[in-house]
Amino acid sequence: MNLLLDLFLTFAKIGAFTFGGGYAMIALIENACVEKKQWITHDDMMNVTVIAESTPGPVAINCATFVGYKQKGLPGAIAATLGMVLPSFLIILLISFFLDNFLEIPVIANAFLGIKVAVGLLIINAAIKMLRKLHKTPLSVAIVAVAFAVMSAANFLAFHVSSIVLLLAAGAVSLFVYAVFQAKKENGGHDL
User: Fold this and answer.
1) Tens digits of per-residue pLDDT, 145-169?
2) pLDDT tens digit string along 116-150?
3) Using CA of residue 135, residue 31, residue 5, residue 63, what is the dihedral sign?
4) 14 by DSSP, 3-state: which?
5) From CA 6, how far away is CA 10, in angstroms rounded?
6) DSSP string computed for 28-59
7) Taking the model in full, what pTM does it have?
8) 53 and 167 in contact (C-beta within 8 Å)?
9) How far apart are CA 84 and CA 61, in angstroms?
10) Which regions of 25-154 does DSSP assign to beta strands (E)?
């Protein structure tokens, strides 16, 4: 029972004090679940982030559900997911009841300007950590470089590229390269 409460409270803290959505939460989830609690490994974190991005639902909630399930099965998944969702839900519910024009209050509007900068830094921090832990092969480096170039071009030239399209393209390229190497191996070729 203590582990269920620990899962709930850990993810409630992350959910209550993180602005900016799932990507901003990844660094905090990794810090809590990999470094402090050691519930999952760095490789698990990389894998769950990729899976969470590829499945329906917010990345942070999918990560919380995975960690909870890995620790305590279905009850753990429920505790971690509720911990992640409940604080944000309650905060938004209170704001909606009491403040009709919440973001029009000068103090709040100015606070959110600063929060936006912090969120951007959290996302960059999570990306750098993930890139450092990436198994660096010529293929993975090429995929990162091409994805970065496409996203940068999209931002500078003001056109939209779906992250789902990039994920599917990266997966397709990886599967294609794998199939080519498997075919070479079966035909007596050498593995690179």
Assistant:
1) 898 898 888 888 888 888 788 888 8
2) 787 777 778 777 877 887 778 888 889 888 988 98
3) negative
4) helix
5) 6
6) HHHIIIIIIS-SS-HHHHHHHHHHHHHSSS-H
7) 0.60
8) yes
9) 6
10) none
